[in-house]
What does this fold into?
Amino acid sequence: MEKGRVQCSIHTCRRIFDEPTLDPATICGARRCRGCGHSDARSSRPLLRLGSRQQDRSQPDLFDFKPVADGVYAAIAAPRYKVNSNAAVILTNDGVVVVDSHSKPSAARALYEEIRGVTKQPVRKIVNTHFHWDHWQGNEVYAAEFTNLEIIASERTKDNLTRPDAGVGGLSSIEKQLVAVPKEIAQLKDDILKATDPQRKVNLEANLQQAEAYLTELKSLKPALPTRTVSSSVTLKEDGREIQVLVLGRAHTDGDVFIYLPKEKVMATGDALIDWMPFLNDGYPEDWVQTLQALEQFDFTHIIPGHGEVVPKAHLSFFGDI
It folds into this structure.
């Protein structure tokens, strides 16, 4: 990377841009980033706060929980040093379907508290759109609460979750994070000691709190893997709601699924479509374009992406041009 340029540290972004006033290790967890537009959790929009039982200084604001269609909600993750994914929440007559369960159990619990605010029905199904760590490590919360829970993913995603060389997700990723995060914590502590700018020190201390809290959760994870896999598109039999799980081809990973609500014209895409530059390390760029072209053939108006705000279908063309 050329001198004077920095890279956004959120793994789903990684944009390179002219250096702003903050260093790249903390930029997306601090203020609005001039390069990628991320803003911090201290923005003015109404974000979901954890209940007092779970709340601590490292977990102040996690989601903006908003309706997208009748009985369909998007939990839009606030930008964090330790990133969370978005989730889609779909209410049916006899239960709830949740698309993606976030990066950690505390985030899944926070979302479940919000779900309880709109329905007392049980969570029947979790759909993991792909195998990356920030989209499935909260599965265990729902599995522990609901004994008949079905966790759905593609066959390739389940394989990736258990394969040691699968990339930035799965069981092997937990082990890698248990090695990497303590080093990250040590580096943050060193950076705090060296920091001379008061605001940068505050940002680093907030990042340290998040990293330490995340490490505590990592050490006690009880991973819940998919209980049902699909190799081609299927329609879930849910009372009062048609929910299609689409397998359209390789994109962000080799096992992406899309969740389509034809009546409500809503599509949840996981990280195959987000509102900024995608993470490409486990992706298939040429196939990705073809998969998005196949997605475009469906009739929908709103996209709940894996990260970022709900966007219109027109964003699909913009994203495909990146």
